[in-house]
Amino acid sequence: MKKLVKVLSLILVVISFSFILTACVPKSAEDAMVKMEEKGYTVTLIDQDYLLTEGAVIGFKAYNVSEKQGMTAYWFNSKKEAKAYLETWTDSMYDEKGIKGLCVYAGTKKAIKDFKR
């Protein structure tokens, strides 16, 4: 009985942790834009007419001028396209870059933290 309780507890912890990880990066550009605006960023949509990033479906740029923070994010049709873009993305303006699912992002540390929360 004790062994069963321990196993079930471990499973519950793993499930909880997976929910935390998947809830970090917004699933759509629209959700991310709303989230960043609520945190005081000025957000600009980059739609199909202005995308220079090959393979990207949509993106946005977010800046908080008063705090000197900013970021850019793009969503792709496939993880393969997203990974390929991340490997070639060179933008010295930002502190860090990353990928989550179909989203590739880069920005200052605080902007990325705000984006993931």
Termini distance? 38 Å
Which term fits the overall shape? globular
Task: Tell me the Rg in angstroms.
Answer: 17 Å
Parts with pLDDT < 50 across at least 5 consecutive residues: 19-23
Percent in helix: 40-55%
| Structural class category | alpha+beta
**Count of separate DSSP helical elements:** 4
Content of β-strand: 25-35%
Strand order of the largest sheet: 1-2-3-5-4
Give the total of domains: 1
In short:
The chain is α+β, with helices and mostly antiparallel strands and 117 residues long. The chain contains four helices and five strands; from the N terminus they run H-H-E-E-E-H-E-E-H.
Walk me through the structure.
Helix content is about 40%, strand content about 25%. Strands 1-2-3-5-4 form a five-stranded antiparallel sheet, sandwiched between helices. It has helices at about 1-20, 30-40, 80-90, 110-115, and strands at about 40-45, 55-65, 70-75, 95-100, 105. The chain is an alpha+beta fold. It is globular. It has one domain (about 25-115).
